[in-house]
Amino acid sequence: MSRPALPDGLSDGLSDLGIAWTAGLPSGWGTYGLNLALEARLAGVRPHLFFLPDSLPLDPARRFVLEPALRDHVRLRHLLDSHGGGAFPYPVLHALGDRLSFPPETRHLNGRPDIGVVFLEHTDIPPENLETAAGLARVITGSTFNHRALAEAGLTNLAFCPQGIDPALFHPAPRRGLFAGRFAVFAGGKLEYRKGQDITLAAFKTFARRHPEALLVTAWHNRWPASLASIANAPHSQGQPRHRPDGSLDIAGWAADNGLDPAQVLDLGELDHRLTAPILRECDAALLPSRCEGGTNLVAMEAMACGLPVILSANTGHLDLIGPERCLSLDSQIDLGQISGTPGLAGWGDSLPDEATAALENLHADPDLRHRLGTTAARFMAGWTWGAQIRRLLDALAGV
Q1: Any idea what the Cα angle at residue 310 is, between residues 239 and 302, rounded to 5°?
Q2: What is the DSSP-derived secondary structure letter of residue 385?
Q3: Quick one: how far is CA 284 from the chain centroid?
Q4: Are 259 and 353 in contact (CB under 8 A)?
Q5: Does residue 100 form part of some domain?
Q6: Is the domain of 111 the same as that of 188?
Q7: Do 199 and 319 belong together in one domain?
């Protein structure tokens, strides 16, 4: 198979770029990595994929574009498995963890130079992590919240480059009426304390008592047991979902345990990312009261891109999305950094369920408001495509 006829590289000389996390996993990082590789290739930069899942969610056209990188991955994996690392003559992007932790699996994988990418949630950063990050050529920050926190910590090698949306998938389009006669509220993001699903349950429970046609549409699957367990500590819900024999979470059962009518809950389970947009377009609103977002919340961005009116907590990464006439914001934020006594929660906010219920009531009562917010949101997100955002990232690497 011949290579696609694409540009030979950027004018600044960047021709190759390593991506040192698992591109293609059903997660925010996985979606980011896959779109980064694709858009880099379309811009004439050869992506090098060090980590891939066993099954890669690619249609034949995208697989065709990335075919050289997929072949090269076999060579890279053999090298890493044989030597445990290596030095590569091109920039390598590393996925920095929370509190700027450097992933152990890429510590011996060195680029020329090494670049960090971060969507941190806790701001109590150990001095040794700051020192390591300061030694990187660039640290790409995924939100203004992250950028400001790291600048205040003393880092000067920062570049703000948020994530994007795929406009081929996420855009306004006619709905099929699958939820006809219902008022469907979408709620997405892996189930954990940070994402605030307990707030969603409490707000929707009150709303649904007044509106029997209300339907909560959840995409809350969580593959990570540690973060899932954190929902048991949330103040507005009890316990956590049980696992079914097939490993899926019994979200509807958990919602029922917390006082919701099972007939008013539709759990989507672990949804294929490519199937999300048609379901979003069937919904009437989205409720996303996260206590913290290190990035700009892909779920919120994709819902907005589909023309869905969204309700967002006014904290951390959501602040980059909130604006006049493009969403409803939950402004009464309880500052968890001040009241919890837990280090690193600067910027975290607890939303009031009653305010979220009131926002749902406003959207339910006013179809014109829903249309106006959704139209403005979709127009705003049309400028946040993966193509535009990855070009912004590539431009940020021009000087390194």
Answers
A1: 95
A2: B
A3: 21
A4: no
A5: yes
A6: no
A7: yes
Tell me if 173 is assigned to some domain.
no
In a domain, 318, yes or no: yes
Q: In CATH, what number is assigned to the domain containing residue 108? A: 3.40.50
Residues 151 and 260 in one domain: no
pLDDT one digit per residue (tens) for the chain, 400 residues: 333 344 445 545 699 999 999 999 888 999 999 999 999 999 999 999 999 998 898 999 999 999 999 999 999 998 888 887 889 999 999 999 999 999 998 888 999 999 999 999 999 999 999 999 999 999 999 999 999 999 999 999 999 999 999 999 999 999 999 999 999 999 999 999 999 999 999 999 999 999 999 999 999 999 889 999 999 999 999 999 999 998 899 999 999 999 999 999 999 998 888 899 999 999 999 999 999 999 999 999 999 999 999 999 999 999 999 999 999 999 999 999 988 778 899 999 999 999 999 999 999 999 999 999 999 999 999 999 999 999 999 999 987 8
What residue spans of the chain are helical by DSSP H?
A: 28-42, 60-83, 127-134, 144-152, 197-210, 225-229, 251-257, 276-282, 298-305, 336-339, 353-365, 367-381, 386-396
Provide the domain limits for residue 281: 183-381
Instruction: Answer whether the bond into residue 113 is a cis peptide, omega within 30°.
Output: yes
The CA distance from 118 to 146, in Å, is 8
Domain tally, the chain: 2
Same domain for 195 and 151: no
Residues 313 and 344 in one domain: yes
Q: Is the pTM of this model over 0.85?
A: yes
Q: Is residue 219 part of a domain?
A: yes
